[in-house]
Specification:
This protein is of the alpha/beta class and 290 residues long. The protein contains eleven helices and twelve strands. The structure holds NADP nicotinamide-adenine-dinucleotide phosphate (NAP).
Length: 290
């Protein structure tokens, strides 16, 4: 006897991660809503979306992810990333839906000497990080049944993204310097989406760090992408975070360990280089067809 499909609502479905979740839920009934369908900044919109869907689970990929934008507009950051999540969590509790909420390495200061595990104390340095920590706390307070999946350094397949920007600049022969004093775990959006789908269906509770395996700097990631695109990686120069001078502070150490994920018996995501190779092969093939 086959299990009847679960109805799963995906919010932020227009984003890098949100657009990938439905593909990992082929046997479930997925309702995917972008900002027009479920606006976290609008309580009524959130409540209506959840009540209308009556889902068994919600995967929340919606967030205001512009880190420097958040620094300049803390009210909007809190409105979307914390209060919006409160409304979503409360609506899930009313609907009896399990909430899988995506959070970030930026909840940590980056000062730890070693990987952050799920039980380390968050201490965000940026407005974005604080607003996302607010979202985590709202989930824990208001959702009846929930999981938080913290991830880092997401590279997706479409839209504006780090990998395409870097490779595009390398192709144009534009000057290219990338920071080499931040360390983290790159995460391929489709791989993360698969993990989120798994958390939604299994209803596993708790906080999980979910990234591809392996640690590198942004410079390493850029050079690897350029090389996989068939270009010379030595065109990618280095710079420091201080030289880049972005408005919002970034953690120097963003490395997340997946201790809780492993303890739950879940298989680790593949190494980031493997995921990047797959992603670049698809990009190169698409370029040949265009
Ligand atoms: N990207 C990373 O490197 C990274 C790292 C760690 C954690 N994360 C977390 O991963 C999750 C997914 O991020 P992502 O990389 O997929 O980001 P993304 O591509 O920016 O997607 C976020 C989506 O949220 C939507 N959104 C923005 N404001 C909204 C609102 N008020 N109501 C509803 N939707 C809204 C955006 O829609 P519009 O385009 O219409 O604004 C966008 O489609 C987020 O929780 C983020 O904090 C990301």
């Amino acid at each position: 006897m086959t299990a009847s499909p679960l109805r799963i609502l995906v919010t932020g479905a227009g984003g890098q991660v949100g657009s990938e979740v439905a593909a990992h839920l082929p046997h479930q009934e997925v309702i995917a809503l972008d900002r027009a369908g479920c606006d976290l900044a609008d309580r009524h919109s959130v409540e209506q979306a959840v009540a209308a869907a009556a889902p068994a689970a919600v995967v929340n990929c919606a967030a205001w992810t512009d880190v420097d934008g958040c620094e300049a507009d803390p009210e909007r950051a809190v409105l979307v990333n914390a209060l919006g999540v409160r409304h979503l969590a409360a609506a899930c509790a009313r609907a009896g839906a399990h909430l899988v909420h995506v959070s970030t390495d930026y909840v940590f200061s980056g000062e730890k000497d070693g990987p952050y595990d799920e039980w380390d104390e968050p201490s965000p340095r940026s407005v974005y990080g604080r607003s996302k920590l607010g979202g985590e706390l709202e989930v824990a307070r208001h959702a009846g049944s929930w999981a938080v999946a913290r991830t880092s350094w997401v590279f997706g397949r479409r839209g504006r993204n780090f990998v395409d920007t870097i490779v595009g600049r390398a192709r144009e022969g534009a000057p290219l310097r990338v920071v080499d004093d931040q360390r983290g775990c790159p995460t391929y959006a489709p791989d993360l989406a698969g993990a989120l789908a798994r958390l939604a269906v299994s209803r596993l509770p708790g906080v999980y760090h979910v990234t591809n395996q392996g640690v590198c700097t942004w410079h390493d990631l850029a050079a690897a992408a350029v090389e996989l695109a068939g270009l010379d990686p030595s065109v990618v120069g280095t710079m420091t975070t201080a030289e880049l001078g972005r408005p919002a502070p970034r953690p120097a150490n963003s490395v997340l360990s997946g201790a809780a994920w492993a303890a739950a018996g879940l298989a680790p995501l593949r190494p980031w280089r493997e995921a990047l190779a797959e992603r670049m092969a698809a990009t190169v093939a698409a370029g040949r067809e265009a």
